[in-house]
Design brief:
seven-stranded antiparallel sheet; 5 helices
């Protein structure tokens, strides 16, 4: 884990209110799909707290973060230019488990939940069979950064399947044996709650990357608890996650 100022290389808009920022990879450490960085968007005290961002992609020289402008912090981030510095803390958290044989991987993202998947896909074995489902509100939110083929679901029917991502998933997996499927997911809690029920009914293994405000990023502030099914105990999304088996958690 490092804390360091990293120069911004580029910061481009890829869809409605959605940006991809690239920073120099001046950090000598391994990066794993599912991990995140906590980023300080300003040098001053407002906004005070760091923002967590999944690693969307990484090369030998760069790290990429995908984000959506939803508040003051991400608005400030969207205004960063090449040469500006970002103070980052990371890499933090655990990673997706993707070393499975003879499994068809289904990646399902809702909104900005698509963010960790380009880096996850890059880490798949060369011949891994997988598909990507992307749930959006409308066609203005679609993009395909780092992903060759995506099946879209839109709330208003303006692109792809007319309905939500879980309904699209129900249709999509009809062509596969459920025992040969593993799901990776990230998105808003309502989508994940529906996914948990669906995965349980179909007995499909599912890993989910949980989204949360993470002030410290490594468990000191205790600000991101998540309830485990066993004994009603709690763990921390930042330290024990952000990736969990969906059957282990209460959403």
């Amino acid at each position: 884990m490092f804390i360091q100022d990293l120069p911004v290389i580029s910061n481009i808009k890829i869809a409605e209110n959605t940006f991809l920022i690239e920073v120099e990879r001046a950090i000598d450490c391994d990066l794993k799909p599912g991990q995140f960085f906590n980023i300080q968007v300003v040098e001053g005290t407002y906004p005070l707290l760091r923002r967590p961002f999944s690693i969307s992609d990484a090369t030998e020289n760069s790290i990429f973060f995908m984000y959506k402008v939803v508040g003051e912090g991400t608005k400030i981030l969207s205004q960063k230019k090449s040469g500006d510095k970002l103070n980052v803390l990371g890499p933090l958290g655990n990673s997706f488990s993707h070393s499975y044989e003879n499994k068809h991987f289904v990646l399902i993202g809702g909104g900005i939940g698509i963010a960790p998947f380009p880096f996850l896909i890059k880490n798949f074995d060369k011949n891994q069979d997988f598909s990507v489902l992307f749930g959006v509100r409308n066609k203005n939110e679609i993009h395909n950064y780092g992903i060759d083929q995506i099946s879209y679901a839109s709330d208003d029917g303006s692109v792809g399947f007319n309905g939500n991502a879980i309904k699209l998933l129900e249709e999509h997996i009809k062509k596969y044996k459920t025992s040969n499927i593993k799901i990776f997911a990230c998105g808003p809690n309502p989508m994940l709650r529906a996914l948990k029920n669906f995965a349980a009914q179909k007995n499909i293994e599912c890993e989910v990357s949980m989204e949360s405000a993470m002030a410290c990023g490594f468990g000191i502030c205790q600000g991101c608890p998540i309830q485990f099914n066993e004994n009603e105990t709690y763990k921390l999304i930042c330290k024990d996650g952000p990736v969990f088996n969906i059957s282990d958690i209460e959403i």
